[in-house]
Structure prediction request, 646 residues.
Amino acid sequence: MEFFSPSDLIGSSPILALSAFSLIALLANALVKNSAKTVFYISVVGILAAIGCAMYTFSMNATAFSDMLLVGGYASFFAVLFLVVALFSLCIAKPYLEREQYHFGEYYVLIMLSTIGMLMLGASADLITAFLGIEVMSVAFYVLAGYYRGKLSSNESALKYFLLGAFSTGFLLYGIALIYGTTGTTNLLRIVTMYPQAFGDPVHIIGWGLILIGFGFKVAAVPFHMWVPDVYEGAPTPVTAFMSTGGKAAAFSAFVIAFSVPMSMKDERLMLVVAVLAASSMLLGNWFGLSQLNLKRMLAYSSIAHAGYMLVGLASATSLGQQGITFYLVSYAFTNLGAFGIIAMLEKVNGANLSYEDYAGLAKRRPGLAALMAMFMFSLTGIPPFAGFVGKYYLFASAVHSNLTWLAIFGVMTSLFSTYYYLRVVVYMYFREATNTEEIILPKLTFATVIVCAVGILLFGIFPALIFDLMKSMF
Amino acid sequence: MTFEQGVFYFLASVTVFSAVMMLLQRNPVNSALYLILNFFCLGGLYLTLNAQFIALVHILVYAGAIMVLFLFVIMLLNLGDDKRLVEHLGLRMYLGIAFSSGLLIELLYIFGFSSPMNISELSPASVEMGTVEYIGKVLFTKFLFPFEITSFLLLAAIIGAVLLAKKKLVQ
Prediction:
């Protein structure tokens, strides 16, 4: 009997390459003295190798390991996104952790392990793979959130994330069990083609509802968002940067694949539920964002609101919506990584220097840095010519196309709130006198990463076709 | 009454008895012990359904691993008497009632309203599916990839445990 063929191995090569390098990095961490730097370089090489594999498989269009994994197109596109995000977050993390004297090799190994989970999520053709991907990613995140072992806020963040995360996984698993019980398969490619009549069964629909809860937690949609502010604030800043970009993108990539099944049946009830989740996330995320004083917390609420915008694309149940989500995830990843990169550079020991006040007069002290931060804030608000604008445009356009005009109008209205707290950062940087006159030291590696992010959002904002051309072969 | 029916009625009555006794005990440790008895009887019920693998895993995982966790929590929190437990209830009790009645409704729905299944006789295919041999075969062929990647899940958990619990980290 044949277990697998060489084409399975080539198809899953990004995952396999990253897995191999994560094991090498782990061994190096145990065997080499002063290993953190070595492990960092091994991780960078491993991620670059996996990016190469993902690009090589892009033109393929197949499944691997008896329909467990998608190969090529969608899976490869998201693989490259996750790997680039991981690479950038490593570059932000290295100077940060060295400064905080918390520079251990295990950090990089855990980042690689969680990226393996993300790669599985983006390639999941089966609910089992999606579930395992979520777990591999989340277990690494739970630990990374508590990476500052000696700090109470970090411990709190890890414990909260772990308990609520484990609880939400229960919902996801129960949903998968109900779907398996009503159709006899967990394979997403087979549920629609073989069991369309299952959608008449309420137990089957409840199964999808429970899966919606599980994914809703992972993408931080209201009302499953309670963990977000505390976890984002308590976790080390590079970890927050990685969680809010890679983690969210990974959860959404599997969410889109999984929900293309019930959405292709045009199930009105599920569409309405997703639309309500989208509306409440946009409203509450932006509303609570208004009153925040801490920038990390503000970006946490902004992340809830952005999950809402992306759910608009999902609720529209069209390929335009799916393309909108994909583009938005790319632009959000670059924007948020850049913003968190700047926050990580300016942060002082023990989580100081994170409030709006601390950014007062930044434009006079470091004009370049202030200009970059302003760009990221404009992109988050959705002002042209930055990528955030194009993403929002496509998401709201997809809602209008599927007769969800109320949702599009609601989205535009709530994003008006968000203008206040994003532009507040810009106002503080440019129109307030500096209270803090300490010298700002900018680590070169982080600064270079932030510049690349800024170039990215400008490039994708002015030439969105760069990404949309790639997506034509994906959906 | 056939032998199988006799075994079923015996196991079923002990299952219900232990479940009720677990709820009625004042001492949490006694409750936990009745729960173990309950798990063993459930494992026996799985055996009568020809699901050997689930029966064994049920006893290993629930009566073994999860019960140890329960007992640890009971001892760590020092829940000797139930008075302190009562103080913590309130909203949670109503939530618990809501959840359990939801489950009850679901069970009633499945037994009462879903299309009835013919369970008077087990098909040979379903008997075969319950064996350890069959599950092993499927794990290493169809589910090879998820099976192998699970090792990375465990690896992440082990690294995490070491990272969070080790006394001193070496740079």
Notes: Residues 107 and 144 of chain A are 7 Å apart (CA to CA). Chain A touches chain B through 42 residues (CB under 8 Å). Residues 266-475 of chain A form one domain.
